[in-house]
Task: structure prediction
Amino acid sequence: MKIDDYRLVPGKRVRLDRFDPDDIALVPGGKKDGEKGSRRIAARLDKLQERLYAEHRHKLLIVLQGMDTSGKDGTISHVAGAFNPQGVRIKSFKKPTPDELDRDYLWRAHAAVPAAGEVVVFNRSHYEDVLVVRVHNLVPRSVWRHRFRQINDFERMLTETGTLILKFFLHISKDEQRVRLEERIQDSDSRWKYQHGDLEERKLWTEYTRAYEDALTKTTTDWAPWHVVPANAKWYRNYLIGSIVADAMERLRMRYPEPDLSAEVF
Ligand code: AMP
Ligand code: MG
Result:
């Protein structure tokens, strides 16, 4: 198993039951090793982001999707926590407001994309418009079926204008979700996260899986690939996403700009 194996290949049909949510293949030593690795990655990410900010050229968009309790918030604390808060922005996608519903579904996503030198993390994203919207029939099939192409076009335009897009599907098992939902209900410190409707959504696991498989298949492109991240082990999820982001940023070969020192200051 190599890190690249977690990246989906365009044109290939995705079957999620072929991906093991318990997989920890790149860190066979387990949690301690993974956490040590994550600290090294955090130091790399910190330096890389400083360059991104200084160079003021590239833009980085990280998209996080996954079932309820799959660990989107935890990923944000760990991975985005490595960055300087001045250069990173988190955008969470909730149920659209009336104002948002009056526009096209990509409007609110476009309004939140990173500027030059900036990192933006989407906690959920425009993909909700082919996931929850599809599962709950919020718009008819004749409307959402065009969205895969529209999303690919939108993401291509962002890429062609300097945005690096990295998309992550946090893959947990249905059993792991039960454990995490029970924790939410029983643990007084995480009860606030429990939402009315979480158990109703869980009943739609199969429908969501189908919608995800379709979305992952149709929107994995050369310019904006999806990664399927085994996410039953939180430490492995953090390690893997951190590694993928750091590797991708390194490939940008960013440089600090020439210093603006004029002779007269000395
Ligand atoms: P949470 O991530 O737990 O804060 O919940 C956000 C909720 O907003 C989830 O239940 C999402 O499914 C829902 N949501 C996000 N985007 C949309 C959308 N475009 N249409 C309908 N519901 C959405
Ligand atoms: Mg929720």
User: Anything to note?
Assistant: The pocket of adenosine monophosphate (ligand 1) is lined by residues 93-96, 124, 128-129, 132-133, 195 (CB under 6 Å). Residues 216 and 226 are 7 Å apart (CA to CA).
